[in-house]
Fold AraC family transcriptional regulator.
Amino acid sequence: MTPPYRHPRTNPLGDIDVTYAAVMRRVLEQRGLPAGPLFDRFDLNSGQLAIPQARISIPRFMRLGHAACELADDSTLGLAMGQATRLTDVGMAGLAGLAAPTLGSALATLIHFERLTSYNSRGKSRMDTGPTSAAAVFYSISPYNAYNYFVVDAVLARWLTFIRMLEPSAAPVREVHIEYRDRGVCEVFERFFGCPVLFGSASNALILDPAAMSAPNPLGQPALFKTLHDSCARELEKLKSGWTLVDRVKEELAPRLRGGSPGIDAIAAAIGTTPWTLRRALAEQGKTFRQLLGETRQALALEYIGATRLSFAEIAYLLGFASPAPFHRAVRRWTGLSAGQYRRDVQSSSASSHSSSSASSH
């Protein structure tokens, strides 16, 4: 049986708190669908979904979500997942947000501490605010397919649901922007969000009304907010306390690989140092920036090949290779196998392990 992941760096592509899977299961059960057998197929029984701070890998969650959409015969299941989110599902960051002084600061708190419940090597969500504009932005997870549409849908729906938990009458969203192209669901989405939904946009985002975001939070409680916000900050610090400089560099490298190779200047700035200081510090640990770039690419590449259905051309682009050819050469250098053979071997091994696990549990 494959246990939920516990350590936030277990899977190179990322991982997510099992609470998200629990919400998915609840939605299926509310529809009278047999969620139990589906979750058993993914080695996620009720006991595992109740383990505090347990996580599962992003690829495993996406495969589960795809299977759930098929079971429900509903390509917009992600919206239902977001809408089904309860106060007890939002984690410590959400509880801190519930006590924030304004609706905007409540959502910003939830997003700022996103890492407490999920990590994706592709990027981080953010809150953009200005005098006349505001946006809650979910990072790109393109290329899009049936395995990750629901993730975008669920995240944006969850954010809107969170705001409405605080102020049910709020109409804070002016527009919804979604990167992937319309799958014939625009009418459903506009009815759900209550505003125009623009598919094929440059980002995934809720475009918010600044006036609505600056409105007082009816549940705001300053003292409790400070206590919970500080607690989240400590948890986040604890999460990163065991990280070495190498870990921090790889953390910043991963989301910057798409379409090219990030330079040391950008990474040094991201971790608050200078390129010269970073080179010297890495040398003291027997590492070079080039080595870490290669190690990061290798770990992500092998996980993408073995755990996803992305094409090799898509993986090559996501990891900054100039073309598929150098990507294929790199895979052969790392594994001694072609990318296709490596994928077949990993997936065959995974299928055999799952069959053995299923047999032993019956």
